[in-house]
Amino acid sequence: MQAGKLRRPQTGDGHDFRGHRGQLAAPGRTTSTVAMVLLLVFTPSCRPPEPEPAAAQAGLVITGANVIDGTGAPPRPETSIFVRDGRIAAVTPDGGLSLPEGATVIDATGKFVIPGLADMHVHFGLGAPLPRQPDETEQVLARELYYGITTILQLGATDGSTESIRALRERRAAGALPAPFIYGTGGHLTLQGTHPVYTVFPPAVREAADRLAAATPMSEPVDLYTLGLGISFVRTEEAARSAVRERAAGGMDAIKITVESGPTSFGDDHPQMSVEMIRAIVDEATRHGLRVFAHVSSPDELEAALEGGAAGVVHAPQNEPLPDASVAERMAAAGFIVAPTLSLFADPPDLDDPFLRATVSEEEVAALAEPGFVERVRPRWECCAPFDDLLASVGLLHARGVPLVVGTDTGNAYVFPGYSVHRELELLVRAGLTPMEALEAATRGAAEMIGAEEEFGIIQPGRRADLLILGANPLDDIRNTRSLEAVIVEGRVVDRAALSLQEAGHPAVASEPAAADRASPSIGEAWRAAAPEDLGLRRAPLAELTELLRAGEPYPSVHAVCYEVRAVGSEVAVFESERVRSRQGGR
Fold it and tell me: Alpha-carbon torsion 532, 533, 536, 537, what sign?
């Protein structure tokens, strides 16, 4: 791991979830089933928080549970968990402590309690092949919660700038956004001319990015925020260090860099970040208590990240298998972390899976199953080594002691928010992890990845009370994480049925004005603020959107349609990029 003291986010610094208000079970009442206590409704509000109800002040107690605490220890039967002020206060055998007067009590006899799950590779503004309304990110976050994902790490790209992350945290703290605890890197750092801007995005976006770069001094990062992208080009070490300082000052929790020269399907001929540049970024990040994680596709890029001092990678190399065990042994010796993102490269999930269909609309399923779309996505799998080879590489890493962490790359086609974490757990077990080890990768390992092990990841006093109650033992079958009966976030039971999980209809041009609370305008917002006739456009039905998607630019990913503007055409993207730039003085 990198040297240097890690900054640990504190409750109240923009991450506090206790602004979410709602009704809990009546004070002093013990419920007979978990379902009877699912009474909390997230009530969006921008008003100052009201006093907590008496039950919340008295605390929450879960009794009778089989507790799998995330440390790797065997389950603790007939155990009670005491929660106060959003934190775990005590974990004792049943009867070990008296129940506080007025406490909310959940009888979890025969159930299994595990820490809330984490996804350490998430992108917003994506998640399905349909253009979204302004609250698409809210829907992604709601879906994460529904599936028991209580912590996420946002790794840049759309809606991933420092300002966007901070705005989301503030809304969450104010009770206006039901969401997991959000860690973030801000915009990820990459080179001009390489992935992802020059591989997955249409020519108009590349051209707009080049114009921004031409207007920016080489000593400064080229921020693509005005294009709706949480991405920054760094062309000199000075610019890279400046970008790291900006993210540290903005309260980010790690730094993400793109090392690769381009996935195989785009040609491995784009610029690759040098070891010297990686070292400069790591050096600056370490000064600010942050770790650096790299996006790679091939073993040589992984080697560069390892040599440059990065703390880990957010993909297992997928272009080709690891050459031998020696690199894995060096990774293990360095504590080098890997989030394999197996669910990104596996075959698509069963779109009729009831567990998936609980959150995914008929519209999305129809679009994802459309043959033309499937064919456009197929190169994502065909460009890489056979999936069994990828599983074998991950198994090798695990066998040699390389720390593995759950990350999904949510935001790509068929990688569904929340659902894909459960799928990732299953794939890790296929790669050779035990169910207990897979759970640790989504809990304790996730916390250790960003130096937040005192905050979440295990069921011990002092940690956030992020807990899942399961109806079946996940150690018997990792698929039992699907037997989800209750999601508890900072001591409050989430009303999963009340979350906004699906929308009906996604017009190509939304009629609403840009949201007032967004930190900076995106091209999608600029378009929404303009009348359709001003742009020579009209509203299009879903069938036309599907056709537009099939006729779109090169990469078979939903990156190309993450904003309405990209679903329509490059001319509009250029127009809107210039329009937003003019509002911000050329930046």
Answer: positive
State the Cα–Cα distance between residues 3 and 103, nearest whole angstrom: 43
**Shortest CA distance to 180 belongs to which of 36, 20, 290?**
20
Q: Is the dihedral of CA 241, 243, 246, 251 positive or negative?
A: negative
- What pTM does this model have? 0.78
| CA torsion angle 54 56 58 59 (round to 10) | 160
Strands 112-115 and 30-31: unpaired
Strand bridging mode 492-493 / 484-489? antiparallel
Quote the radius of gyration of the chain (alpha carbons, Å).
23
Chain segment 9-22, per-residue pLDDT in tens? 333 333 333 323 22
**What percentage of the chain's residues is helix, strand, coil (to nearest 5)?**
35, 15, 50
On the question of pLDDT at 253 being above 90, the answer is yes
Q: Is 32 part of a structural domain of the chain?
A: no
Strands of 8-129, DSSP E: 30-31, 60-67, 76-84, 87-93, 104-107, 112-115, 117-122
Q: Which stretches within 5-116 are classed as H helix?
A: 54-58
Q: Which of 221, 564, 292 is nearest to 451 (CA)?
A: 292
* Gap between the Cα atoms of 463 and 333, Å rounded: 28
Rounded Cα distance between 108 and 62, Å, is: 6
Q: What count of Cα atoms within 13 Å lies in the side-chain half-sphere of residue 533? A: 0
Query: DSSP class of residue 458?
Result: S
- Close Cβ partners of 524 (under 8 Å, ≥ 6 residues apart): 134, 228, 563, 564, 565
The CATH number of the domain where 438 resides is what?
A: 3.20.20.140
Tell me, rounded to whole angstroms, the distance of Cα 277 from its chain centroid.
26
Residue 37 predicted with pLDDT over 70: no
Range of the domain at 564: 523-583
Residues 222 and 175 in one domain: yes
Q: Please give the sequence-ordered ranges of beta strands (E in DSSP) within 166-313, or none if there are none.
A: 181-184, 188-190, 222-223, 229-233, 255-258, 292-295, 312-313
* DSSP element (H, E) containing 547: helix 542-550
**In a domain? residue 20:** no
